[in-house]
Structure formats: structure tokens, C-alpha cells
Amino acid sequence: MKSIRIIFALAAAWGLFALLPGLFGEAGPRPEYYYGFIGIALVFQLIFIMIAVDPARYRALIPISILEKLSFFLPVTILYAQGRVDTGPVFFGAMVDGLFMLLFALAWLLSRRADKAA
Asked: I want to staple 52 with a disulfide (CB 3.0 to 4.6 A). Which of 8, 18, 44, 104 is the partner?
């Protein structure tokens, strides 16, 4: 369970580091979308912290966390393939989310093994 704690703690730390400055950035033409995205993404960092604190108790949230990462990674990857997103910060952030998505899947598999061993 220690590796699961580390994965989710790192995800929460990275998310807070990447998202908090966005609260003070330029929102663009649709501020409700921009700040809504930042807000829900920040809430998910709290979920990652909950999982990091007690992975066994909050194991059911891990697949939902995988979907949270997929919900940014997949659209940006498609937009990049269409030439609608360049290799700037948005693309980089999506690739980090893709990495955490894979790590969350690994954590879920590890938690199943730990569950069976207990």
C-alpha cells in the first residue's frame, strides 16, 4: 500500500502545483468554463489526498480517478493529432495526466493484490 500512497500523494502535489496558479490567470472568453475546470480539478486533488491517506478504504475511488485523468488526456491527445493543440503547456499537462492515469491503473491492480493477501 505504500506505493499506492506515494502515487496518489505525488498526483495531488503535482495537481495543486499545476492548478493553483490558474486561479490567478487570464480566463479568456468563457471564464465559467475556465474556472469551472480549475475548480473541479482542484476538488479531485482532495480525492487523491484521501486515497493517499487510506488506499484500502478509498479503493473504489481509484477507477473514478483513472477516468478523471482520461477526461483531460484523451481530448488533448485527439486535438493534438488534429493539429488543434501545439506542444506547449496544455499538451505537457495532458501527457502528465496520461502518466498518472497509468500509475493509477497500476495502483488499482496493486490494491487488488493487497486486498487478496489480507
From this structure: 8
Residue 20 has what pLDDT?
A: 96
User: What cell does 98 get?
Assistant: 496520461
DSSP for 57-103, please give it: TTTTHHHHHHHHHHHHHHHHHHHHHTTSS-SSHHHHHHHHHHHHHHH
**Cβ contacts of 5-9, under 8 Å, gap ≥ 24:** 5/52, 5/53, 5/55, 6/52, 7/52, 7/100, 7/103, 7/104, 7/106, 7/107, 8/48, 8/49, 8/51, 8/52, 8/55, 8/65, 8/104, 8/107, 9/48, 9/49, 9/52
Whose CA is closest to 52, among 105, 6, 112, 16? 6
- Predicted TM-score (pTM) of the model is 0.91
Tens of pLDDT, residue by residue over 23-82, are 998 888 999 999 999 999 999 999 999 999 999 999 999 999 999 999 999 999 999 999
